[in-house]
Amino acid sequence: MIEYIIAKYNYWAYIVLMMIGFYAMIGKGNLIKKLLGMNVFQWAIILFYVSTSVKKGGATIPIIQNGHGPVTHAVDVAQYLNPLPHVLMLTAIVVGVSTTGVALSLAIMIYRKYKTLEEDEILQIEEYEALEPEE
Amino acid sequence: MIAEHFPALIIVFPLITAFFINIVGWWWIRPCFYMSILALTVSFISSIGILNTVVTQGVIHYKLGGWDPPWGIEYVVDHLNAFILVIVSFIGLLVGIYSKRDIEKEMPQKIPQFYTIYTLLVMGLLGMTVTGDAFNLYVLLEIASLASYALIAMGEDRAPLASFNYLIMGTIGACFYLLGVGYLYIVTGSLNMADLSELLPKLYHSKAVLVAFAFFLIGIGIKMAFFPLHVWLPDAYTYAPSSVSAFVAGTMTKVGAYVLMRVMFTIFRPYFSIELIPATTVLGWTAVAAMMYGCVLAIAQRDLKRMLCYILIAEVGYIVLGISMANRMGLTGAILHIMNDALMMACLFSVAGAIMYKIGNRDITNFRQQQLNKKMPFTMAAFTITALSVIGIPPTCGFFSKWYLIIGAIDAQQWVFAVALILSSLLSAVVFFKVIEQIYFKPREPVRPHNEGTHEEVVMDEAPMSMLIPIYIMVGGILILGILSGQIISTVIQFAVPASF
Fold first, then answer.
1. Stated pTM of the model
2. Which of A40, A98, B199, B307 has the most CB atoms around it within 10 Å of its CB?
3. Predicted confidence (pLDDT) per residue in B332-384, tens digit
4. Is A65 within the bounds of a domain?
5. What is residue A40's three-state secondary structure?
6. DSSP secondary structure code for residue B72 in this structure
7. Residue A71 domain-assigned?
8. Has the ipTM of the complex gone over 0.85?
């Protein structure tokens, strides 16, 4: 069992991180904590993608040495990491950052209205307002 | 030839225009609306051109940047997504026109921002529809989602909180989709949908592929507000600005349904999603629950927009039920219902927006007191016709898609599904007749004492023309497309259904 976990430790790490983030998004009452949970969740997926491109046995970055010389080299797949997951994750990082930006600005709007970011307090204020309309 | 580049133009033109709208909007607000409409018109014309090419010449493969698939991103347009493209760009254009007066009243200081993000939202949905690359779909999905979070947050007082909850749920959905793509990439090394479809059959018994399929279903289920994953929808769409809820209710869930079809029948072969694992059975029964839940909760609502939100959840149930029947008639019904429901929901939410524009209140029990039937007769007539279509009364288009769905259920010998379809139609009849009764038939409560004797005449106070005309184009669509549905099926939809059915 322990070897099974160690052999695929990158997947276990991503699952644990993702579940921490998931718990924070679902279980926490504070909106900023939810937001942090969302970030942990997204970054866990990014780690997962990046770790899938790892190759054991001395593989390095995909730059062909002496590529401009007179001799054309045949590229051996085992020597180079797969760059595609990294590139995909650049896009996912951009998406994650902009999601965080939108969420933070929403949190500012919510704070201006309710003067709190605790979900239960906001719901109490909502109920109070529903009982006694301002007009 | 420009027609060759329509698949790219449909995305690129609104994308670039959106940035210019923002820049121009710093100095001059007036042209923002017209620039947005121009971009949406170009998208609409391109999508008509694409549909025409697909119908006459077959599937379009457009290689972005000239890179051959599966290395480059490829846009593939077949009958199914050409059809969805026309629907989305059509609703986008109409709601764009409709939004002019609404936005001037609801958020006069945010006009450039609204049109920037609105154009981006339409572009994101069109991109999701046109793309043939699984990861590209994720990026465009996030563009559309981020745009919709921002637009929903512009709405009335509770909107930011609703939008925040939607953002959290939506991010979970998008991340699950991304994980699904990641698992498929690990086992196949490809992101191109057609290529995945070739590579996957050998791996159908791999656990990673099964998990990927489950992630896809849950992720898309959240995005399209499919029943147990719908919790973000009622709040978000109720508090959103009227034009925004008209557009997102009409198209966003439908594009989600389209992506579900793509995943189930293109990335995975029908053999996998129907015979190998019981996905269609689970989806079918959940869809029945969605229809019942949506209709029953709609009866209990007093807020017109919230009631329509629950109807929308039930309508998503119809589409998924059609997909889950996995036979020709059921899928035809589902695809036809995507079109009909996009029109009906956009029209109903537009009417709710017009009521908000004039009355400033959308409490159903208040309609009689306001004498809406005399104040806004045309808007109310549009509401009634569309309501009849949602219920499924024959000359309107809602009847035809339900007809195909019921025939599909009978073909699949799923009698419970057929009964559920009829039952939920009856329930939606209860929902809408309750509103129609409030508008037309309920006697008005006695006039307040100090106003006694002076029985003032109610003056007709209709919504502005720029709102009424888009509403009536949609109503016309509901009436005409119902009659033309046979022709639509024979020219487009029968080729959109996977050939193995």
1. 0.91
2. B307
3. 889 999 999 999 999 999 998 888 888 877 887 777 777 777 788 888 888 88
4. no
5. helix
6. S
7. no
8. yes
